[in-house]
Amino acid sequence: MVHVASTPLLALRGICKRFGVVWALSDVELEIHAGEVVALVGDNGAGKSTLVKVITGAGPADEGMIEWNGRPVRISRPRDAQSLGITSVYQDLALCETLDVVGNLFLGHEIGRSGVLDEVAMERRARELDLLDTLSLRIPSVRVPVASLSAGQRQTVAIARALLSEPKMLILDEPTAALGVRQTTHFLDLIDGLRERGLGVLLVSHNLGDVKAVADHVAVLHLGRNNGFFSVPTTSQEQIVSSITGATDNAVTHRAVRAWEGAV
Description:
The protein folds into two domains: 1-85 and 168-237, Rossmann fold (3-Layer(aba) Sandwich); 97-166, no CATH class. The mean pLDDT is 87. It contains ten helices and twelve strands. It is 36% helix and 25% strand. The protein is of the alpha/beta class. 39% of the residues are buried. The chain has a six-stranded mixed β-sheet, sandwiched between helices. Strands 2-1-4-5 form a four-stranded antiparallel β-sheet, with helices on one face. It has helices at residues 48-56, 78-84, 101-105, 119-128, 131-134, 151-163, 181-196, 208-214, 237-245, 250-263, and strands at 10-19, 22-32, 36-41, 63-68, 71-73, 86-89, 112-113, 116-117, 169-173, 200-204, 217-222, 225-231. A hairpin with a 2-residue loop joins strand 11 (217-222) and strand 12.
């Protein structure tokens, strides 16, 4: 069991983001602690992607404050987020299929001299950080092309690459969308391992089954605003779906739950 510090690793205070006359985010609050998995959920257009862009510096907030380990910081570009220790794995994974596993791990951060790659040094570095063993990457060799790997193995390679920079917080965007049942189970175990390592994890997902299985808390966005922050063990799926849809009538809530269950 990982001890969760009282001071949040990341705290968003009154975050607002506007596109022309449209307010995509209005006074959004969010806290993520080290050693904690927070799921960010909401219907399409709720503002999840916009909030992720605020955190990663891809789309800075127009108003509000961001705190990192209790002190105010400014994240106005991706480099700012990376320097704090925030990294992301997006749904498209951004892997190069013609390169092998080691080549993808170090893509853009290759080790070498005078323009010549040091393949041995890169493989040694990956093994020193225990990435491949820790993530239980079951492949015949780290030298096989990524194109030959399954969807779950590719997902693991993308996360291993993100961990190469030894981040403090990891954002996972719809990580199980392309995975089968067995691969999803393995992936959720992997997220548990990240929590045990003391990382703060923001899990963006439409799959409430995954959320209930692995998240500590759920933050709900509805039409660009906070609409609930719940402890997973003590909150029913009906309560979460009700907040996602903004439903207040019980019959509407039950229909919404069935629709969400059918969607995932």
